[in-house]
Write a structure and sequence with these properties.
This protein is an alpha/beta fold and about 210 residues long. It has a single domain (about 1-205), classed as Rossmann fold (3-Layer(aba) Sandwich). The protein has helices at about 15, 20-25, 45-50, 75-95, 110-115, 135-150, 175-185, and strands spanning about 35, 60-65, 100-105, 125-130, 150-160, 165, 170, 190-195, 200-205. Helix 6 runs parallel beside helix 7.
Length: about 210
């Protein structure tokens, strides 16, 4: 699309790890209500708006502190947030159908709890977990997010094998994998793993 040249992205992590997978995935299930945990500059948000709003109206909720984690210690996160606002405003303005974009600025623990308390259990068709890389945070995002996911809905975990450190000095609690593995094992009777590439892991909810 011509207007994509106006997006302000400083990297293409989403393109490298996910765009090809998502291009195939979005045609497999209905995605009209989406929850994104961790939005950064809005690359994945804009991809979803660009592609899904061609077919029908879209509701997408984005949760982020825009404070960053330890891996963002040298970044200007206020500038990152401004790029997210610019990029998503542009995507919504160019959408074919109506897009209801709701931004929740705060910790995922608080914002997900608020959505549960608001009675939104089973509301979302697709949930993208790409916030903190710390195992305790990832586990909490997964458990709370699963409550908000509709039966037959899909949840995607990013950075499945991401880790901080070297192969000889890894802290497993500072990576998503141990949390994702714990979650999928405990909830194995309520979900089905549908795809497990190295960078991302997808599950479908089969029971509440």
């Amino acid at each position: 699309m011509a207007h994509q040249k106006q997006y302000k992205f400083t990297n293409d992590w989403f393109g490298i790890t996910a765009r090809a997978l998502w291009s195939d995935m979005i045609n497999k299930i209905k995605m009209r209500r989406i929850l994104e945990i961790g939005s950064y500059e809005g690359n994945s948000t804009c991809f979803l708006i660009d592609n899904l709003s061609k077919k029908s109206p879209l509701e997408i909720h984005c949760i982020d502190t825009w404070e960053g984690g330890s891996e963002h210690s040298h970044e200007d996160m206020a500038a990152v947030e401004q790029r997210f606002l610019h990029n998503t405003e542009l995507a919504v303005a160019n959408s074919k159908h109506h897009v209801d974009l709701v931004t929740h600025k705060g910790s995922s623990a608080q914002e997900l709890s608020n959505l549960v308390a608001a009675g939104m259990q089973g509301y979302f068709d697709f949930i993208y977990v790409d916030g903190s890389h710390q195992a305790p945070d990832v586990l909490l995002d997964a458990v709370l997010g699963f409550q908000l996911l509709a039966v037959d809905g899909m949840m995607c975990f990013d950075d499945y094998l991401w880790s901080k450190g070297t192969i000889f000095h890894l802290d497993t609690l500072k990576s998503p994998k141990i949390a994702i593995d714990a979650f999928t094992n405990i909830y194995c009777r309520k979900m089905q793993i549908i795809q497990a590439p190295l960078c991302q892991l997808f599950v479908t909810k089969v029971a509440a």
